[in-house]
Input
Amino acid sequence: MFDRVLIANRGEIALRIHRACREMGIETVAVHSTADADAMHVRLADVSVCIGPPPARDSYLNIPAILSAATITGVDAIHPGYGFLSENARFAEAVEAHGFTFIGPTAEHIRLMGDKIVAKKTAQELGLPLVPGSPGPVASVEEVVALGEKIGWPVLIKAVAGGGGRGMKVVNSPEGASEAFSLARTEAKAAFNNDSVYVEKYLAKPRHIEIQVLGDGLGNGVHLGERDCSLQRRHQKVLEEAPSPALNAEQRNRIGELAAAAVRTLKYRGAGTMEFLFQDGEFYFIEMNTRLQVEHPITEAVTGIDLVREQIRIAAGGALALRQQDIVIYGHAIECRINAENPQTFVPSPGKVVDYHPPGGLGVRVDSGLYAGYSIPPFYDSMVAKLIVSGPSRNECLMRLRRSLEEFVIGGIETTIPLHQEIIQQQDFIDGDYDIHWLEKLVGLKK
Output
C-alpha cells in the first residue's frame, strides 16, 4: 500500500480523497494555487505545496509543477480526482514515467475512450448498443443532410473531442444543417482545438443513465448499478439519483452486465462510468468517463462501497476483491449539486461565506470544503457543495432531502439551493417522470 499520495485537484473532491487516504493510514500532499491557500483540504493535508497562480492553466493543469511537487514531497502515487488532468493521457504517462503510480486507468484506456469516435467503435466491438449515426467524423454539410435523410430528423452534431454541451447542435431539417455544422465546428475548435464533428440521431425524450464500473486491470470487473443523471441544464448535471426510477430489475441487470463484460474484455483498471441514453426500453452508449464521477457518492450510499478506497487499492496492485453477486443495491439516494450561483439567472456568485450550517442526521452526507469565513475564488467551477441523502425507499429519500435542503445554510453568497427546493416539489419529479430536457423547460418557464 502507498505511504503518501498527492492529490492533484481542489475543492470538495480533494477533501474527499484526503479523507479516504487518512482512513487507510496514508499521508496526503495537497497542491494548490495561490487562490486556494486557505482551502480546507490544504489545511488538513499532511503537506501542502503551492503550484502557481489562480488560472488553472498555471496551476492545476501545470503538469511540470505537479510532478515537481510530487518529487520534493516524496509521494508514491498521484490521485487526479475529476476534471482538470483526470482524463489526460499525457499526464498519466508522465506520472508513471517519473516513478509514481497514477491512481486511475492506463494512459492507453484514457486515450481510447477520450476520442468519442474511437470510443464508439470500441463500444460497438464490445457489444454495447449505439445511437444510430455516422461511423466517424463528417466533413461536409452534404454528409449531415444525407445522414439526416437516412436515420431520420432531427439529428445531433457533436464534437469528437467534446464535453459539457460545447460543439453540440440540434438540426431539425436539411435547411438548418449548414448553419449548425458551421457553428458546431467553430465551437469545437475554440473549446478543444479540434473542429472534427460527428452526427447522431437526436432522441426526443431520453433519460441519461450511467453505469458505475470497477476493474482491476487483470480481467476482473463488476458494475455497481446505475445512476440517473437526466436532470441537466445546458448539458451540465444538476441532480442525480440511484437507482433510476425509470428502470426495472431486468433492464438494470442487462445493461449492467454488458458494461461489466466490456470492462473485463478491455482489462480496464480502476473506476469508470459508461454513459447511455435510455428511451422506449432501449439503451444507447454515448461515452465512457475514465475517472471518478462527481455523483459517485450516491452509488456509495446504495452499495456501501467506498469507491475512492477501491481506486487506491486497485492502483496499489490489489486484485478486485468484489464479486458481482456480493454487490447489492439497497434503498435510494439522491445528490444535489449546490453551486455558488443565482438560482434564477445562474450568474456565478463567488465571495465570502458568512454563515455555514450543513444539514445532518441519518442518511445525510455533505461533501464540501466550505466553512464560515472562507472566500470562494472566482476562478473555478461554481460547485461548492454536494448534498447526498439516502433512505430505504425513494419516497423516504425525498422527504429527507426536503428537510435537508430546508436546514442547509450558506450565507453571504447566492446558491442554487432554492432551485433544488423547487425541483423536488414538482409532481413530475416526485413521480420520477422526467427526461434530459425536463429541467431546461422548467427553468425556461420561470423566465
Observations:
- The mean pLDDT is 95.
- Residues 249-266 form the longest helix (18 residues).
- The chain is about 35% helix and 25% strand.
- The chain has three domains: 4-102, 132-201, 207-446.
